[in-house]
Write a structure and sequence with these properties.
Order of helices and strands of chain B: EEEEEEEEEEE
Number of strands of chain B: 11
Number of helices of chain B: 0
Shape of chain A: globular
Strand content of chain B: over 45%
Oligomer: heterodimer
Radius of gyration of chain B: 13 Å
Distance between the termini of chain B: 37 Å
Radius of gyration of chain A: 14 Å
Structural class of chain A: mainly beta
Distance between the termini of chain A: 38 Å
Shape of chain B: globular
Helix content of chain B: under 10%
Order of helices and strands of chain A: EEEEEEEEEEE
Structural class of chain B: mainly beta
Largest sheet of chain A: 6 strands, mixed
């Protein structure tokens, strides 16, 4: 049973425009959500996170929005740059649960930013 | 900077061989993890450890075992490699605080022939 879902396997945008990556979750016990970026042949690198008590967190060109009632979050990248082309993984954590050490990941979305 | 080092970047093994994947972290993190990444399947948790000599099964532990004899080192063992274990293996560590950010190694690409 997939608890974190990224329903778009890929997304293509033009340089300078906004990229919006979406993520849905089913487990209402998740209290932190994270986004990771992964280039081919490298490990994932942490981008940005948001606590479930917030609805927005911003870091430079990256903003994450959380809609808890819809169990939905999105990552906005503005403006998009060719170097942003990578696979983006959404992840969630339940800090109060029995296995509160682990992250549950979605399947990823391949973002391609065209010059 | 936290560093997670995976000793082998690329390995080619034969079916039935025993395979060891080693991972070392240098930030004194309590928690260490092994994930595998496959196209269309994302990152799936194999095993994790929250203390020395402690381990817990993740979502896909079958065919794997782990060892954590020292805090900084977490090994993944494939007792008898099979072709369906061809994958990218990712080690990670974290301290479990706050957002529970995990730091990943560069990955080990294993091909089983």
């Amino acid at each position: 049973d997939q608890q974190v879902k990224q329903n778009s396997p890929s997304l293509s945008v033009q340089e300078g425009r906004i990229s919006i990556l979406n993520c849905d979750y089913t487990n209402s016990m998740f209290d932190y959500f994270l986004w990771y970026k992964k280039y081919p042949a490298e490990g994932p690198t942490f981008l940005i996170s948001i606590s479930s008590i917030k609805d927005k967190n911003e870091d430079g060109r990256f903003t994450v929005f959380l809609n808890k009632s819809a169990k939905h979050l999105s990552l906005h990248i503005v403006p998009s740059q060719p170097g942003d082309s990578a696979v983006y993984f959404c992840a969630a954590s339940d800090s109060g649960g029995g296995s509160n050490y682990k992250l549950t990941f979605g399947k990823g979305t391949l973002l391609t930013v065209n010059p | 900077d936290v560093k997670v080092t995976q000793s082998s970047r690329y390995l080619v093994k034969r079916t039935g061989e025993k395979v060891f994947l080693e991972c070392v972290q240098d930030m004194d993190h309590e928690n260490m993890f092994w994930y595998r990444q496959d196209p269309g399947l994302g990152l799936r948790l194999i095993y994790f450890s929250y203390d020395v000599k402690m381990k817990e099964k993740g979502d896909i532990p079958e065919g794997y075992s782990v060892s954590r004899e020292k805090k900084e080192r977490f090994s993944l063992i494939l007792e008898s490699a099979s072709t369906n274990q061809t994958s990218m293996y990712l080690c990670a560590s974290g301290d479990g605080a706050g957002a529970n950010v995990l730091t990943f190694g560069a990955g080990s690409r294993l091909t089983v022939l």
